[in-house]
Amino acid sequence: MNKKKVELLSPAGTLEKLKIALDFGADAVYGGVSHFSLRIRSGKEFSFEDFEEGIKYAHERGKKVYATINGFPFNSQLNLLKKHIVKMGELGPDAFIVATPGVLKLCHDLVPDMPLHLSTQANVMNVLDAQIYHEMGATRIITAREISLRDLKEIKAALPDLELEVFVHGSMCFAYSGRCLISTLQSGRVPNRGSCANDCRFPYEIYAANPETGTLFKLEEEAGIGTYIMNSKDLNLASHIKEILDSGAVDSIKIEGRTKTAYYAATTAKAYRMAIDDYYAGKMDTARYQYELHSLQNRGYTDAYLVSRPFEKHDTQSLDFTMQLGTHQVSGVVTADGTHFLCKYKTFPGDEMEVVFPLGSEVQKVDNDIGSTYERDGKIFVKLKQLKAQNGKIWEEIHSGNVNPIELPTKFPPYTFFRIPASADMNTAPKK
């Protein structure tokens, strides 16, 4: 069984999110440029130069970057794919994430020293498939999201040298391990090539047709049931970290979300960092982790299938809404130099904002002309007495979209977030 400390792996949709995820506790991040990646939209945020800078940033901190080359290529793209593999290898990531046997072999042939991680898209659920891919050169398997913890333990017992990675948080796909064509049929955006339009999140009206008479009629649903019939809840296994790590079968726990916000990257990394560190310290505080995770926008949470069999679960779909606001609203983010913040919602003088910063960081307690920082109930807060912009202008209020950096009463860790409790009028997510 695995005796190493488990790795925390976070999404890196942009260079900024890469840095934030690492600063807030991730041991490694995954991402890539748009070519041959299953997140084309996030990949477009990365140039080769930015990705190389991200790798350097991670390595300077003793952390890792895994490059995604996990799309499903056509024959017409194979020559371009070969060039892309070589170029990505030259940037010096710590592993490639790939999804098909052919691409796995191609990567091994072109960059023979590169560790290869097999994507969850390969649907590995058992020892036989894991062994085949391991023999082909995969050093790690990112197992299917439908796998059980019991099956993970059996794979690790049979193949102790093969690393196993599992998703513990983030969006869940309606289809089996993401193998979906709904978006392809409706909008021409191919999920398995990185451009899913998330059609399963849309509301649908249901009709019935009689082929003999040509009669078509709408099926009316009961009030409050909703029409988000394919909308999966989000995965959240923070309360099961002890059970997962006790198994000894898991080498890396993974967070989904390359297209999510910077606040999401920070908060998920911090919550699961706390859970992992608490586990090895012999203590667990699930309420503490869930407090952070429930501050995020979500589709409702489920623990899915890792700790329960599919037939035992009847709460994995969110039928009444596509997205809901979390318990908190992000109101600001601190600049890279730590001296100012940018408004992300709306701020007035005297507003109390909770401070969210990386574990191990500190904020000086002050009370001056600009504002004050203080602690209450184990949390740090900031309250501004005046909204003084970097150019010297004093604002009576500021709103999201105002690009003027606002002075802070003391220096904060870079990319610290400010948040306020969410109210009902903030939540604009469509509901029944």
Q: Describe the strand arrangement of the main beta sheet, using strand numbers.
A: 1-2-3-4-5-6-7-11
Query: What structural class results from the helix and strand content?
Result: alpha/beta
How many angstroms does the end-to-end distance come to?
48 Å
CATH superfamily of the largest domain, by name, is Aldolase class I
In CATH, the architecture of the largest domain is Alpha-Beta Barrel
Query: What's the number of structural domains?
Result: 2
Low-confidence spans: 428-432
Strand segment tally: 23
Instruction: Count every helix, treating DSSP H or I runs of 4 or more residues as helices.
Output: 11
The third-level CATH topology of the largest domain is: TIM Barrel
Radius of gyration: 23 Å
Helix content: 25-40%
Q: Tell me the major beta sheet.
A: 8 strands, parallel, barrel
Beta-strand proportion: 15-25%
Please tell me the overall pLDDT. 88
What features would you describe in this structure?
The chain has 432 residues and is of the alpha/beta class. The model is unreliable at 428-432 (pLDDT under 50). The longest helix is centred in the middle third of the chain and has 19 residues, at 262-280. Helices cover 25% and strands 22% of the residues. The radius of gyration is 23 Å and the shape is globular. It has an eight-stranded parallel barrel with strand order 1-2-3-4-5-6-7-11, surrounded by five helices. The protein has a seven-stranded antiparallel beta sheet with strand order 17-18-16-23-13-14-22, with no helix packed on it. A two-stranded antiparallel sheet has the order 8-9. It has two domains: 7-176 and 231-302, Aldolase class I (TIM Barrel); 328-426, Elongation Factor Tu (Ef-tu), domain 3 (Beta Barrel), CATH 2.40.30. Pfam families: Peptidase_U32. Belongs to the peptidase U32 family. This is U32 family peptidase.
